[in-house]
Design goal:
About 75% of the residues lie in helices and about 5% in strands. By secondary structure, it is mainly α. The protein is globular.
């Protein structure tokens, strides 16, 4: 038994596992090259769809990486907050502003901005309340207690969505055209894809500026590195953590609206998408804002290539 354990340790310590990983990666790259050669237009079109989906995942991943970076807490409720914000956005669009595709462009823009004006502060406040009642009392508790609480809050938020909106999917009209905006050769980029990146990129840039250049952002970085030292230097740790949750909630609201404009949404949408987004945050280096978005883009591409490249086209 001891001999077998020692042998296993030697295998783990050797480069064999690294070699197997590189081999698998090489096979995947070869497969992608083959698919590109077979049909470049199909390959690039699917890649654009994957990048668009990945950008949406990235908005959710930013909220995960903010909270984990400062508390080392997997806030499982974040995905459910995102779904709830999307459902509230659907109510605002359909019942409050009563928007449809026949409304003028100006009215649609005003309605969508009005929706954000309600959902962003509302979701930020809701997320702040979650932090205050669920996580703040557990600051000095073992990590496992906070983790279990996060799982519990996820179920609570999900059931709030279920109680209010039921099991049906909510959808809004296609306010952003699915028509081609830019055509390069035989590859077309649609308006809805451009719209997603037009939202994600500015959000990432503003958030990065906030964290790196503002006084509050520097306080967040300090608390993330050393909570006790930050308190000794006069930083209000509790306030900084609360601001982080407010920011994460705001990002969830923006992501909820962007997702709603692209897809249908219901009470449990945040569960699966939340797992994808947190994986993206870990893949990009937890606490790294740009890395979270890049990780989400990679997952979106992998998902899209896996589901789209091997699907038989009509006539095949």
């Amino acid at each position: 038994m001891a001999t077998a354990t020692a042998a296993l340790q030697r295998v783990r310590g050797s480069s064999l596992i690294d070699a197997i990983g590189l081999l698998l990666l090489g096979l995947v790259l070869i497969w992608l090259v083959i698919k590109f050669i077979e049909d470049p237009t199909r390959f690039l079109t699917i890649g654009i769809i994957g990048a668009r989906n990945g950008a949406i995942y990235g908005l959710v991943a930013l909220g995960y990486t903010l909270v984990y970076g400062i508390l080392q807490l997997i806030n499982f409720a974040h995905g459910d907050v995102f779904a709830l914000s999307g459902l509230v956005a659907s109510t605002m669009i359909l019942s409050v502003f009563k928007l449809d595709t026949d409304a003028g462009v100006l009215l649609i823009i005003v309605g969508l901005l009005g929706t954000l004006a309600v959902t962003v502060p509302g979701t930020a406040l809701f997320n702040g309340v979650i932090e205050r009642i669920a996580y703040k009392p557990l600051r000095s508790a073992p990590r496992l207690a906070a983790l279990i609480t996060a799982v519990g809050m996820s179920f609570i938020v999900q059931n709030i969505s279920l109680a209010v909106y039921g099991v049906d999917y909510e959808a809004v009209p296609n306010f952003i055209p699915r028509t081609d905006a830019v055509t390069i050769g035989s590859v077309a980029i649609q308006w809805n894809t451009i719209a997603v990146f037009a939202i994600v990129i500015p959000v990432l840039l503003v958030l990065t500026w906030f964290v790196r250049s503002t006084r509050q952002g520097k306080a967040m970085r300090a608390v993330a590195q050393d909570t006790e030292a930050s308190a000794m230097l006069g930083i209000d740790v509790n306030r900084t953590i609360s601001v982080t949750f407010f920011l994460a909630g705001s990002l969830a609201a923006v992501a909820g609206l962007v997702y709603l404009l692209q897809f249908n949404i219901r009470y449990d949408t945040g569960f699966e998408l939340g797992l994808i987004a947190f994986t993206a945050a870990v893949l990009g280096g937890i606490g790294n804002l740009a890395g979270a978005v890049l990780g989400a883009l990679l997952i979106g591409l992998i998902e899209s290539f896996n589901e789209g490249l091997d699907v038989a086209r009509p006539g095949q």
